[in-house]
Write a structure and sequence with these properties.
The chain is 29% helix and 27% strand. The protein has four helices and 15 strands.
Length: 247
C-alpha cells in the first residue's frame, strides 16, 4: 500500500522539507578543498540538531553517520571519514531528517573547484533529470512515467542511470512504498494520487550503469570507476501538480 498523506501531514512535511533545504544550503557553503568528509558530517549533524530535528540516516540499519558523502566514482552511501576534498573532485551529499515524526530526504552533487567539462555536464544532466522526472509526478500519471522520463533524458545526453538503487515513498518513515526507479517503460505501475509523497532521486553514471558495493558493506561505486552524480528532492503529488517540499 502506498501511504496517502492528509493535509495536516503535508503541513508538517512542508516544514520538514523547508528545514532540510536550509541545512543543505548551509552544508553546501561549508564544502571546499581541504575539508574532510568527517568534518562535513559533524557540521551537518550540528545543523540538524540545532533545528530540533533528528538525523534520519544515523543508525539506520547500522549506518554510522548523519550524511552520506560520495566522492567521484562513489554513487551513494559514502561513509564520512578522514578523506579530504581536493580540487577537481565531485561530492554527492545525501541527507535525511526526521522532524516531529515526519521524514524528508534530499541530495545534491557539487564540484570542488574546476572540474573536467564532461564531469560538469554529468552534474548538469543529473540535476535536470531530477526536474524532468518531477514534472511527471502528477495525478493520473503512472509511476513509471517518472522513471521513463528520467532514463530517456539521461540516455539522450550520453550517460546511464543506476539500476541497483532507486527512489522511494517517504513521510511517516524514511522508506515507504513505492520504489521509484530511474528507468523503465512509460504507462506502468500504480496511478499517482494526490497525497502521495515520493523521494525522486536520479543517480547517473558517466559510463556503465553497473555498480559494486565496497568492503564496508555500504558504499556503492561505479563498476568502471568513472564518476557518478546524484540529486534528490522530496515531492508531494497534489491536485495542482507536483510540490517540491525540499526546494
Amino acid at each position: 500500500m502506498i501511504p496517502i498523506k492528509s493535509e495536516r501531514d503535508l503541513e508538517i512535511l512542508r516544514r520538514s522539507g523547508k528545514i532540510l533545504a536550509k541545512i543543505m544550503r548551509q552544508a553546501e557553503g561549508f564544502i571546499r578543498p581541504g575539508v574532510s568528509t568527517a568534518q562535513i558530517d559533524s557540521f551537518t549533524e550540528e545543523l540538524v540538531l540545532k533545528e530540533k530535528a533528528i538525523p534520519a540516516f544515523k543508525g539506520y540499519k547500522g549506518f554510522p553517520a548523519t550524511v552520506c558523502t560520495s566522492i567521484n566514482e562513489e554513487i551513494v552511501h559514502g561513509i564520512p571519514g578522514e578523506r579530504k576534498l581536493k580540487e577537481g573532485d565531485i561530492i554527492g551529499l545525501d541527507l535525511g531528517i526526521n522532524y516531529e515524526g515526519y521524514f524528508s530526504d534530499a541530495a545534491i552533487t557539487l564540484a570542488i573547484g574546476e572540474v573536467d567539462s564532461r564531469v560538469k555536464k554529468l552534474i548538469e544532466v543529473t540535476k535536470k533529470a531530477l526536474f524532468v522526472g518531477i514534472k511527471q509526478a502528477m495525478t493520473q500519471n503512472h509511476l513509471s512515467d517518472i522513471s521513463y522520463s528520467i532514463q530517456n533524458y539521461v540516455e539522450k545526453n550520453g550517460f546511464s542511470v543506476v539500476r541497483q538503487f532507486v527512489g522511494h515513498g517517504i513521510g511517516y518513515n524514511l522508506h515507504e512504498e513505492p520504489e521509484v526507479p530511474n528507468f523503465g517503460r512509460p504507462g506502468e505501475g500504480p496511478l499517482l494520487e494526490s497525497g502521495m509523497v515520493l523521494a525522486i532521486e536520479p543517480m547517473v553514471n558517466m559510463g556503465t550503469w553497473e555498480s559494486e558495493i565496497l568492503s564496508n558493506g555500504w558504499t556503492a561505486v561505479t563498476k568502471d570507476r568513472l564518476p557518478s552524480a546524484h540529486f534528490e528532492h522530496t515531492v508531494a503529488i497534489t491536485e495542482n501538480g507536483p510540490e517540491i517540499l525540499t526546494n
